[in-house]
Design goal:
By secondary structure, the chain is an alpha+beta fold. The protein has ten helices and ten strands. It folds into two domains: 91 residues, Phosphorylase Kinase, domain 1, CATH 3.30.200; 202 residues, Aminoglycoside phosphotransferase (APH), C-terminal lobe (Aminoglycoside 3'-phosphotransferase, Chain: A, domain 2, Alpha-Beta Complex).
């Protein structure tokens, strides 16, 4: 822990009444996340100390503000934003184990998937609004493209896939959605908690509306194929069904919902491939091949 972090922690203690009681959370992109208490309340504190962490914390703040604006405030960890000498800080409820850890140790993982899907369905319904999904679709596409151009070129030169990606991009923007709702592409089990007061989304990006079939596909693929979590075969089917129901609720054609689900799976596979590059079990290459298969599926679908 360097001096600057120490001084922020001291300030939190002296001026915000927060007692830091845990070690910092060592994993994730922002390493300066601490557990603490504020009176009787158990809290998490996320501190934007480096330039990268600052961006991340401000992005989360933006995401939480937007979640409140669209009526999804109950799904946030009740964050409070403070700043100390230019360092942005989020103080929020401790929502308990994230879904990855919760599922890993679950006695009845199916009931957890049931609850997640019920809560998400409610969230989608209450946040349904008229509007375009361009920003979120563009974000998702950029993530996919970045994996192919910056990382997965270890398997195949980017130029070999440029045409394929161009076709996919064209097809994405042909999707017509009269409505949008709560959504963001990076729906991983580490960024959600099922607390005693319900589902909580932690670590949101700045854009939190769009078409959730992409998120659900990422989440489904991540729990079943990438992390092989207990109950995930059951969970996958449930999440896929939820994607189809959400598509119908938002007024999409079934073929567009299916397209977005396959696209979401391609995004997830490309990320699963990227994060495993260099490992010796061959899984990275397997996910790369699978990402391309999902993209091919997207293109082979009739318009
Ligand atoms: N409010 C919270 N309640 C419970 N756990 C949290 C909370 N905030 C963060 N965590 C834990 O810390 C991990 C990293 O936090 P996150 O905000 O996702 O950071 P990163 O941007 O590094 O991914 C989460 O995956 C979760 O396990
Ligand atoms: Mg995270």
């Amino acid at each position: 822990m360097n001096l600057t972090v120490q001084s922020v922690l001291r300030w939190l203690e002296d001026c915000q009444g927060i007692t830091i009681c845990g070690q910092e959370i060592k994993w994730g992109r922002v390493k300066t996340i601490f557990k603490g208490t504020e009176g009787n309340r158990s809290v998490f504190v996320k501190i934007g100390i480096t330039e990268e962490a600052k961006k991340e914390v401000l992005m989360n703040k933006n995401g939480y503000d937007k979640m409140r604006e669209i009526g999804a405030g109950n799904y946030t960890p009740n964050p409070r934003f403070v700043e100390f000498q230019g360092v942005p800080i989020i103080i929020m409820d401790d929502c308990g184990e994230n879904l990855f850890d919760m599922l890993k140790g679950a006695v009845n993982p199916r009931s957890i998937f049931d609850r997640i899907c019920e809560e998400l369905w409610h969230l989608y319904r209450i946040t349904k609004i008229k509007g375009g999904a361009e920003e979120s679709l563009e974000n998702s596409f950029r993530i996919l493209e970045e994996q192919f151009s910056r990382y997965l070129s270890v398997y195949e030169p980017f130029s070999a896939n440029q045409r394929l990606l161009k076709e996919i991009r064209k097809k994405i923007f042909r999707v017509r959605s009269p409505f949008i709702c709560f959504a963001f592409w990076n729906f991983t089990p580490e960024d959600m908690c099922l607390s005693t007061s319900g589902l909580k989304i932690i670590d949101p990006p700045g854009c939190v509306v769009g078409l959730p079939m992409i998120d659900l596909a990422c989440f489904a693929g991540s729990v079943r194929d990438a992390s092989k979590l207990p109950g995930a075969e059951y969970g996958y089917d449930l999440l896929k069904k939820l994607a189809s129901d959400a598509g119908e609720m938002l007024g999409l054609k079934p073929k567009d919902t299916e397209f977005l689900f396959n696209f979401g799976r391609a995004v997830q596979c490309s990320l699963s491939a990227r994060y495993r590059i260099g490992e010796e079990d061959g899984l990275s290459k397997k996910f790369f091949v699978e990402a391309k298969e999902f993209l091919a599926k997207c293109l082979s679908q009739r318009n």
